[in-house]
């Protein structure tokens, strides 16, 4: 992944991760935005505290960087219980999960990031653990195999996923509360930026915060990262003084445009318009055209492009909207919008546009 992609990608690395951790809100009242999720979660937690029982299992779904990990930490902090963190890809075998479950303490919060990527045997073990606080450890193989039941201390599972549609129904149904995290409004991102600037000891004028928020793709993690790049630019080129113009110049330098589109977004739109006449085209074909994994295109670029009204996911594949042609300064071919395209903007729509003939 190039340095430019890192700027707006979902992952943070090295020092950036440390800074990110320092910027995380620690309590629910410090958590900015997501008002509905906050209120719902607050009720779930307070009623559990009153009953002196662990709350229902919580599933959080939403794009990367919207605060799912942060919320899981807040849940444990609000309940004053320890937190254990793992991720779906780390749970390859049932034994990986059994090792964690068997050492949980009473009331502990278990956070499984990317829960949709857990291996099937671990997933099946989790069903029983979530429902009955018990797991069956299978010893031996073939006809002689026996299942030894093992008690698990009552715990709260917090699962996070960027692809709720990929979760099997039996798993999804075992969560008592599902929090749908949406992209943040610009005003909320401005608050995130002011809070982070305070913590980083930066002076951030209102107009500069507005400029950065407008380019942050509705995502706090990206807002924080762009703020750090603006700070770098200001230190080297503007005696440390951040202004709207300094912010705009810094972000232009990093190829984040006024609407927040980055290189990948523009590459996806560019390929869709330039190579496929605006679509429809299948996800895999589009991903090959921009040299990225289909999942990166689907999880990182598409939700934002759909939200900006630049791309539509249809049963026949991905289609550029009229606004996409305008955004890239191109003219659509005659009749491009003649046929009515029924856009289904559900984030987890199966990719039906990937028939081999299209590739
Ligand atoms: N509501 C918020 N208020 C303030 N800062 C936030 C908020 N949500 C997220 N952040 C900031 O954004 C960063 C990323 O959040 P977090 O790691 O929780 O996202 P995530 O949804 O778990 O992402 P991923 O799924 O990629 O792990 C955190 O460091 C935190 O500082």
UniProtKB/TrEMBL annotation:
ATP binds at residues 23-24, 65, 68-70, 131-133, 174, 184, 221. GO terms for molecular function: ATP binding; four-way junction DNA binding; four-way junction helicase activity; hydrolase activity. GO terms for cellular component: cytoplasm; Holliday junction resolvase complex. Residues 54-185 form the AAA+ ATPase domain. InterPro entries: AAA+_ATPase, AAA_lid_4, DNA_helicase_Holl-junc_RuvB, P-loop_NTPase, RuvB-like_N, RuvB_wg_C, WH-like_DNA-bd_sf, WH_DNA-bd_sf. It catalyses: ATP + H2O = ADP + phosphate + H(+). Its EC number is 3.6.4.-. Mg(2+) binds at residue 69. Residues 258-359 are annotated as: Head domain (RuvB-H). Coiled coil: none annotated. Residues 185-255 are annotated as: Small ATPAse domain (RuvB-S). It comes from the Bacteria. Keywords: ATP-binding, Cytoplasm, DNA damage, DNA recombination, DNA repair, DNA-binding, Helicase, Hydrolase, Nucleotide-binding. GO terms for biological process: DNA recombination; DNA repair. It is found in: Cytoplasm. Belongs to the RuvB family. Homohexamer. Forms an RuvA(8)-RuvB(12)-Holliday junction (HJ) complex. HJ DNA is sandwiched between 2 RuvA tetramers; dsDNA enters through RuvA and exits via RuvB. An RuvB hexamer assembles on each DNA strand where it exits the tetramer. Each RuvB hexamer is contacted by two RuvA subunits (via domain III) on 2 adjacent RuvB subunits; this complex drives branch migration. In the full resolvosome a probable DNA-RuvA(4)-RuvB(12)-RuvC(2) complex forms which resolves the HJ. Has 3 domains, the large (RuvB-L) and small ATPase (RuvB-S) domains and the C-terminal head (RuvB-H) domain. The head domain binds DNA, while the ATPase domains jointly bind ATP, ADP or are empty depending on the state of the subunit in the translocation cycle. During a single DNA translocation step the structure of each domain remains the same, but their relative positions change. This is Holliday junction branch migration complex subunit RuvB.
